[in-house]
Amino acid sequence: MLTPLLHLGDPRLAIALGAALFAWLLAARAWRMALCWGVLLCGGLGLVAASKILFLAWGGGVPSLGFKALSGHAAGASAVFPMLFWMLLHGCAAGWRRAGIALGLALGGLVGVLLVADGQHSLAEAVAGWVLGAAVGLASIRLGAASVPALPLHGLLWGVLALLAAAWLMKFAHLGYWMIRAARLLSGNARLYPLSID
Fold it and tell me: What confidence tens digit (pLDDT) does each residue in 68-81 have?
């Protein structure tokens, strides 16, 4: 029952949606916001990957908090959905845009809660992932919103095309495999630390 909701935070979905929003911003010629969004999203997801590689390779983390690595699902959902709802409501009154952002943050929080309830992440990992994702989404909006006069609907078409292309490409991107390969290469260890909750 929880699985469909947990998929809202799947890093492959976050990357595909992030690419779609980036394409929509480019089509709208919102260069500054596109740059902010692209850099911050890549940086945030890169931090998630780095935390997982660090733990896999050397067992980093904070054992007293049950923290091994940032939750990519919580980070992805709390970054992408506030931005998505803000963009969809861009032409509406400020109150609607704020409500959209709040809904996106709540959706990211729900994904985090479900990850903890399902035993996939500790509370510390889910909260840290949510905070990182929220920072990415909110900072992108804060830094770039003033430079977006309008988001025309034809740009949404480019966003949908980018979403379909990115979703197709992500079927072949085995993110976990590449993080394991990177951890082995960087550490020289054949045996890695397990990321699962004990």
Answer: 999 999 999 999 99
Which DSSP category does 2 fall into? -
Is 80 part of a structural domain of the chain? Answer: yes
Provide the token pair at 85.
Answer: 């709802």
Do 67 and 122 form a contact (C-beta atoms < 8 A)?
yes
Secondary structure element (H or E) that encloses residue 109, with its range: helix 94-117
197 occurs within a structural domain: no
Q: Is 62 in a helix, a strand, or coil?
A: strand
Q: What is the pLDDT of residue 7?
A: 78
Residues with Cβ within 8 Å of 29's Cβ and at least 6 positions away in sequence, in order, are none
Domain range for 76 is: 3-187
From residue 63, alpha-carbon distances to 18, 60, 66, 117, 151 in Å are: 32, 9, 5, 19, 45
The Cβ of residue 58 has, within 10 Å, a number of other Cβ atoms equal to 14
Show the tokens assigned to 63. 């054992």
Residue 195 lies in a domain: no
Q: Report the number of distinct structural domains present in the chain.
A: 1
CA distance 169 to 115: 26
Answer yes or no: is 173 within a domain.
yes
- Residue 169's contacts (CB-CB under 8 Å, 6 or more residues apart) are none
Residue 61, phi-psi category: left (phi > 0), alpha (psi -120 to 50), beta (remainder): left
Identify whether the C-beta of residue 100 lies closer than 8 Å to the C-beta of residue 85. yes
Tens of pLDDT, residues 81-92? 999 999 999 888
